[in-house]
Amino acid sequence: MSDIITRQKKYHEGWKGGGAETPCGSGSKLENTIEQRVWLPKMVKKYKIKSVADIGAGDLNWMQHMAWQVKYSAFDLVPRHKTVTEFDLVKEVPPKMDAILCLWVLNHFPYDDCLKALENIKASGSKYLIMTDRPVWHHEQPPEIQMEALETLVLNKKGDQIKLIKL
C-alpha cells in the first residue's frame, strides 16, 4: 500500500511518528536526519547552490541544526513554525531559487497532484530539485514522475532516498 494521503485533514493533524519531538513525523526527528544534515551541505557546496526554497518545511525541527550557508526560505501547506510561509505546491509556483528542497511531500500526493506539483517546481525556473523518493512504490507510479538523479543518499534499510535532480 502506498503512502498517498487522500484526507486533507491529515496534513493539519500531523504525523504521530515524530512523537513529542515533532508533529511532522519520524522523517523529521533529529536522530533520523543525521545523514541528510551532513549530505545536504556537501551537495550545496559541490553544485554551488546559494539559495534553497524548502517546500514542506514543517516545524523546522531538524533544519534549525543545519550547517550550511544558503539563502533559505521555508514553505508548507500547514506552517508549524512562525518563519514558515503557507504555500500549496499543487496550486502555486515556488520562488526561483538554486534548489527546491521537497522532502517527504510528493510521496503523499495522489499522482495527478504530484504531476501538478512537479510542473510548478519546473515552472519556478530553479536549477535543482532535492526530493525524497520511495523506490518501493515505483511500480505504482506513472513514468513521468520518476526522474534521473545526479546524486542519491539512501536513508534507511527500506531504501528510501533523497535525490538531487537537475531540472
Helix-strand layout with pairing:
Elements: H1 9-13, H2 34-46, E1 51-55, E2 71-76, E3 85-86, E4 99-102, H3 111-123, E5 128-133, E6 151-154, E7 161-166
Parallel strand pairs: 1-2, 1-4, 2-3, 4-5
Antiparallel strand pairs: 5-7, 6-7
Description of the structure:
It is a single chain. It is globular and about 35 Å long. Strand 6 and strand 7 form a beta hairpin. Helix content is 19%, strand content 20%. The protein has 3 helices and 7 strands. The chain is of the alpha/beta class and 167 residues long. The model has no long low-confidence stretch (mean pLDDT 86). Strands 3-2-1-4-5-7-6 form a 7-stranded mixed beta sheet, with helices on one face.
Protein traits:
167 residues; alpha/beta; seven-stranded mixed sheet; 3 helices; 19% helix; globular
Q: What's the gist of this structure?
A:
This protein has 167 residues and is an alpha/beta fold. It has three helices and seven strands.
Q: What is the number of strand segments?
A: 7
Tertiary shape: globular
Terminal Cα span: 29 Å
What is the ordering of alpha helices and beta strands? HHEEEEHEEE
Please summarize the sheet with the most strands: 7 strands, mixed
The spatial strand order of the largest sheet comes to: 3-2-1-4-5-7-6
